[in-house]
Amino acid sequence: MSAGLETRPAATVETSAKQEQERRRALDSGRVLLPVAGVALLVAAWELLPRSGLVDSTFLPPFSVVLQTWWELATDGTLWPNVEVSLARSLGGFAVAVAVGIPLGLLIASYRWLARLLDPVVELFRNTAALALLPVFILILGIGETSKVSIIIYSCLWPVLLNTISGVRDVDPLFIRSARSLAMGRVTQFRKVILPAAVPAIFTGIRLAGATSILVLIAAEMVGATAGLGYFVNNAQFNFQIPQMYAGILTISVIGLLFNVALVALERHFSRWKR
Amino acid sequence: MTPRIEVAGLTHEFRSRGRTPTVALSGVDLAVGAGEFLVVVGPSGCGKTTLLDVVAGLTTPTRGEVRIDGEPVRGPGLDRGIVFQQYALFPWRTAQQNVELSLEEAGGHSRRERARLAREQLDRVGLVGFEDRYPHQLSGGMKQRVAIARSLVHGPRILLMDEPFAALDAQTREGLQAELRRLWRESGTTVVFITHGIDEAVYLGQRVAVMSPRPGRISDVVDVDLPDHVWAAGVDTRSAPEFAAHRRHIWTLLHGGTAGEVAA
Q: Sorted alphabetically, which Pfam families does this protein's record hold (chain A) (predicted)?
């Protein structure tokens, strides 16, 4: 009787794995083809609408023209210094926010009195649009690098901080009971149970911070900067270099996309034990 | 001889602000001998989980004391392994890593030894080949096997089980009950098993403590002495007349009767 019970679960797991594989194969064509078709549709519209005269090609040059301009900018060395400056700002700000946000979040979540003290302040700040504070940052820190990186740190800090706090707070009480039943001390409990349980939530915060870092970077660079992609786009628009402007925007999109893909992969890796 | 577990005058009240305290346990006395399999049966809300929590050291009682081999319980300890109803496995650890955790906390084993002992214990609960699965890749029955392996691997003197099979389907449950009996016989561990199922109580227990609610107390303790032939291979133990008699007896006790009425 017990032998039968031992083999049955194994068989179920195998069948479901096989079914899963088949279903995945059936879905794969749709999973790859449809998104590609979506992008192709967008590019086609971008190309054809200006060419057909339905949209003024002065304000929206066809995609091929923008792509050609982008290639020129990329090869003549105009684009890369701006990309470099922008990446340094956003990645730097993002890194500082993560390095500060995680330990701070862990600390706040671990001490109830600290949470009570800081909760209203945190609520107030996170509900204040970061960009509304940009003039304040410029006023205090000047128009240079410091104010730009600071506003990025500031706006990236909240998703990291809040997700870390909720990640620690929402740890299943059953895990704590289980940990206590194994006679774990507070420190061991934190290291072996609370922290690993909070990791997926923390990585969600990190991913959100990544998106925020690019968003705020561009806005900050559009307000008084002499280099960077935000400056480049704004400047191109001032000088009526419309294809250059779109080339800059395209660059920003691709960088944002790549950053997000990398962070999602990281998040998946650290949550792989989840369903 | 000192009993393995001694519960003396245990009373526990839950206090919440602005309400009269709820009495979960009222003057519970109980002694469990070394190597004994004791089942505590009772309706939900009779305080049986609270009793187990106090023995586990997870709850400090309002009054009274629990002693293990004569030593008062001051908190949780690795001399008592616990299996919860909802498995309580750590999902970021594989089956083997979950089992190894008990050994990590117990200390005194090298990494290699921990791996070996965990594998052996998983083998004993019939989970060969599933060492590297994460809990979400296992069925309910398999998860509970891992939990049992985790609570036994470091060789505790006592195994505490809080309705461990309640969330499983009937067939899986019966299989696990049979395996638990076997594991208990092989390991010689003292087991305290909480359930609301009368069948489960008669099947597993050497003695069955019947609890009644409001306030939670032990109303009767019944010896279950099923003859050897009901345990023979190929015999449906649960349909034996002796089994039915015990079940009826405990049923009557749970529904407010006395042992005398049944015997008459």
A: BPD_transp_1
